[in-house]
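Entry:
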Amino acid sequence: MKGSVAADVKSVPASKFESIKNFRPVLPTKLPAVYRSASLDEASQTDAEALYELLSDGIVIDLRNDDEVINSCAKRTADAEALYEKLGERQREHMPL
């Protein structure tokens, strides 16, 4: 018997990332899994690699307003820039509140 969808989706403990704040699942039992977080702009190489692997079957939603996005770009690490390029628009969605 096949496992449930919930068992197939990777779970993420709240402390999974050190440089990505407020990362948590929104719809972890659906495919694709949906996560939200604060800015990814200060992601370390380790966190960027782990997030990219996690999002192979998921999407991260950015709820910040446009001003917050513009301001955080100044802090963007090279690792975060590489992560954004790898994720593209398919796995990262900007939906300001």
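Residues 45-54 form the longest helix (10 residues).
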